[in-house]
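From the shared-data thread, chain only:
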Amino acid sequence: MYKSVHGGDIYSEQNNSLGKNIVDYSANVNPLGLPVSVKEAIKNSIKNCVNYPDPLCRELIEKLAKYLNIKKEYLFISNGAADVLFKLALTVKPGRAVLLAPTFADYEKALRTVDCKFTYCRI
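Structure, as C-alpha cells:
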C-alpha cells in the first residue's frame, strides 16, 4: 500500500493521541480556512466546471505570456512542486544525485522513478 510522506495527510493522524487538533506545517494550508473572496470566486466559476481542465494550460500560458511580455516557450505551468520534480526527473533522467537530508520526500521519490542512484548529505 502507498504510504504518503508528502505532507497534508491529517487524516491518518486523526486516530492518534492528538485527535483532531492537528496543525499541519508540512503543507501550504490556511489554518483560518478559505477566505470569503475565494469562496465567491469558486461560486462564480462553478458554471465553467464542465470539462476536464486543459492539461497543457494553453489559455493560461497565452494570457500570461502576453501579460508578462515574454515568449510562451518560457512558461512552464504545473500542479505544484511535486509535479515539477517528477516531470524534471522524467525529462532529465539523472544517473546520480545528492540529496540534502532531511528534505522534501518527493525529491527521493522522483529520482527513484528513473532509477537514479543517490546519496544523502545529512545536515
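Residues 37 and 43 are 10 Å apart (CA to CA).
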